[in-house]
Amino acid sequence: MKRLGVVGAALVLACASSARADTPPSMWERARDPEAAEAFDLHQAVQRRLIRTAIAAVDFGERGRVLAMLQRAGAERSKSALLRFDLGHVYVLLDDHARAAQVLDAAVKAFPDHPAVDQAWLRLALACGHLGDHACERRAYVEVLRRETEELMRATPTLNLAETEMHLGDLKEAIAGYREALRIAGRVPARETAPLATWGLAVALDRSGDGLAAEKEARFALEMQHSMGLPRLLRSTDVFFVPDYEIHWYEGLGAAARARAATSPREATAFWGQAERSFAAYVRGAESKHDRWLAIAKARLAEAQAERARAEKRAPSEKPRREPLDQDLQL
After folding, report:
1. What is the pLDDT, as a whole number, of residue 157?
2. Cβ distance 192 to 227 under 8 Å?
3. Which of 3, 62, 202, 282 has its CB 3.0 to 4.6 Å from that of 218, i.e. a possible disulfide?
4. Residue from 102, 152, 150, 146 nearest 123 by CA
């Protein structure tokens, strides 16, 4: 689970931050280097157009036109760092993550000390995350956190780096990273960070073999979502999963946690059934991917099947409830 954070949900702030890093060329600089002056003017035009697409409903057509402007100007091989960063940014916004990663990786290497490179590193991390290139993603997030000192801006990179460490199989680092994200969330106004970090911590603990602690954290995450009015947080547009079947582990663990705390056999049957379906979906997705967590997922699935069967045997002796459980099954 990754959070888009500042790059996806706050494009206006990102553009403003980039604008603050810009220094308009003076009259004398324009006369001395007209090509650089033209590149800066194009950069400013790109920023204005991107801000408009963020304020209004997302306009992929306008973003496509911005891409065409940059391509006509030869931005990918430009001597202007700003145009190369802009090109990578537009590819991210158009969900062309392969091209974004290619352009941004070359740009941050070519202009490592440019004032606007910090945002480029963050966009590179997200592009690599969408591609499942976790080595690139980790390198980029480590660089982002090396450069960024403001805790509010460190929240999402810290959360996403923890997830990257889990994908790479380093559960110890992942658990430490999720706990660091929780610490930051307690100090800054990062509303979704706390429940998302708690979800990540729950899954990391589960995969490390501490199922009881994992279910405790999953219940805590569900309680936070409920209290914050975020019932569909895991399936919100601010969150993405790579591979896409990864979400089923989170939902399966949440259902198992609720089943364990159920107050009746009927409730337990319903929640264990949901856990069973979720882990079965994870296993189906993972079987063809050489997924490192497949064996544990199969064990979780077998447990959910057995617990559901036990709860079903107890359910006939229970008086039926009038109200449906469907609304309680939402994570």
Report:
1. 96
2. no
3. 202
4. 102
What token pair was written down for 53? 């697409």
What are the sequence ranges of the domains in the chain? 1-148
In order, the DSSP letters of 80-129 are -HHHHHHHHHHHHHTT-HHHHHHHHHHHHHH-TT-TTHHHHHHHHHHHHH
**pTM listed for this prediction:** 0.86
Q: What is the pLDDT of residues 13-43, one digit of tens each?
A: 344 444 445 677 655 556 566 577 788 888 8
Q: Is the pLDDT of residue 49 over 70?
A: yes
Per-residue pLDDT tens digits for 150-167: 999 999 999 999 999 999
Cα torsion through 192, 193, 197, 199, rounded to 10: 0
Tell me whether residue 317 is exposed, middle or buried, using C-beta atoms within 10 angstroms of its C-beta: 0 to 12, 13 to 18, 19 or more.
exposed
Query: Which amino acid would we find at residue 32?
Result: R
Classify 1-148 by CATH class.
Answer: mainly alpha
CA distance 30 to 26: 6
Interacting residues of 153 by C-beta distance below 8 A, sequence separation 6+: 6
